[in-house]
């Protein structure tokens, strides 16, 4: 069976709302198996309601989140690390209420927060300790945390699959796994096949994301390497398009998206066709 295909609603909005329901419905019509949404500080009840709408549409869901400096898992402060555990448990509560099975994102450290030095062994140890502590909570909710490596301009702790694999190994919990994002890998990895094989033993989620964050297949990401290697490894997890626009201005500003790459529906339609074609190309 080919991997299920998802689309991240961040192309329209960071917060979930009733306005996202018609968008999810149209994504279902295109052929998507599920949607991915950002987890913020809305109530658990809001995610329960949204999850019920998705269930009516027969759409599955995954989630993405980030942590801030006040809840940094890699912090030297025990109080900040405790806040990280509480924050991630709250994220799990919201994802579980929605019916999601995966929370992806750079939950190893605070987003766009830099120490002005290379990663330190104690930072990896602190991060792994927090992730392990959250793992049991994720397990009882039936959720996997798929931890993400980011490019050097957004993160310093985990830029590569080699670093990420080491961190997940230190976390040592079956519900703490990893994801591969083609946008970040396009910046940081030497060879996609080697990177994917490095993370394969703990790989739980894949973001299909073009080098410019626009329509997958329109840029210079090593797509044949990506789909060929995933097929060779019999990867069966999500392939979720993560593309950005300036529809949600506050979110776009927070991640330095300063121009439009494509209309979100063009991205969704062309991106779905591209993934299906690549899956068929490397099937069997």
From TrEMBL:
Keywords on record: Isomerase
Alphabetized Gene3D superfamilies for the sequence: Divalent-metal-dependent TIM barrel enzymes
Domain Xylose isomerase-like TIM barrel: start-end pairs: 25-260
Listed GO MF terms: isomerase activity
This protein's record includes keyword Ribosomal protein: no
Family matches, as InterPro entries: IolE/XylAMocC-like, Xyl_isomerase-like_sf, Xyl_isomerase-like_TIM-brl
Protein name: Sugar phosphate isomerase/epimerase
């Amino acid at each position: 069976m080919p991997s299920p295909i998802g689309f991240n609603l961040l192309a329209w909005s960071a917060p979930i709302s009733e306005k996202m329901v018609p968008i999810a419905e149209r994504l279902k019509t295109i052929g998507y198996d599920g949607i991915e949404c950002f987890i913020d500080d809305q109530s658990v009840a809001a995610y329960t309601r949204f999850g019920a709408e998705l269930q009516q549409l027969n759409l599955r869901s995954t989630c993405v989140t980030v942590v801030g400096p006040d809840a940094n898992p890699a912090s030297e402060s025990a109080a900040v690390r405790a806040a990280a555990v509480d924050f991630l448990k709250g994220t799990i509560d919201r994802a579980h209420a929605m019916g999601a099975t995966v929370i992806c994102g750079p939950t190893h450290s605070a987003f766009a927060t830099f120490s002005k030095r290379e990663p330190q062994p104690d930072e990896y140890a602190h991060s792994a300790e927090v992730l392990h502590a959250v793992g049991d909570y994720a397990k009882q909710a039936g959720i996997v945390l798929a931890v993400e490596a980011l490019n050097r301009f957004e993160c310093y702790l985990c830029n590569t699959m080699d670093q990420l694999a080491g961190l997940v190994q230190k976390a040592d919990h079956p519900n703490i796994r990893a994801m591969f994002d083609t946008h970040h890998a396009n910046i940081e990895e030497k060879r996609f096949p080697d990177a994917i094989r490095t993370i394969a033993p703990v790989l739980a989620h894949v973001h299909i994301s073009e080098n410019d964050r626009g329509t997958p297949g329109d840029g210079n990401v090593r797509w044949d390497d990506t789909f060929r290697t995933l097929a060779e490894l019999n990867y069966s997890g999500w392939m979720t398009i993560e593309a950005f626009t300036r529809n949600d201005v506050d979110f776009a500003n927070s991640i330095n998206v300063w121009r439009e790459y494509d209309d979100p529906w063009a991205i969704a339609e062309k991106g779905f066709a591209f993934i299906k074609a690549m899956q068929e190309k490397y099937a069997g």
